[in-house]
Amino acid sequence: MKIRSLLPKDRAKLHAMLIKAGVFTQAEIDVAMELIDIVLKDKTQKDYQINCMVDDQDQAVGYICFGPAPMTQGTFDLYWIVVDRNFQGGGIGSKLLDFLEDVLKKLGGRMILVDTSSVPEYEKAQDFYLKKGFKEIARVPNYYAPGNDRITLCKRLT
User: Fold this and answer.
1) Predicted model pTM
2) Helix (H, G, I), strand (E, B) or coil at 102
């Protein structure tokens, strides 16, 4: 498997991956697809970058979406990291995150921020980030909806 830039042929596969994940709301899927479309349609934009982990047939099995945090120096937002349900538990998410860290270090990145939800469906994601060295730095109660806090996690790059 290798990691490469997003290609137009990946769009349908990533859409199916988001749906099959079983944790994202339709609104979240719509936002993810909006970012995918921005990256595919505007090669000059610099707000978002999407890279895919692909199998030996060059089919996407996971992807990561990130970009520089506006008005900061060396701070990057991790917007999405999604792995096909059939490939979860095989280290693809970790490899995508390691790839991100390598890219950001070369760009002078100092930290990665990621926002996640406090609902039970996102506990697996929270555990993943904590195991990968992220720390919770903020929590906004009832941000997404009553009983659904926004949790901001941070990993400082050395």
Assistant:
1) 0.93
2) helix
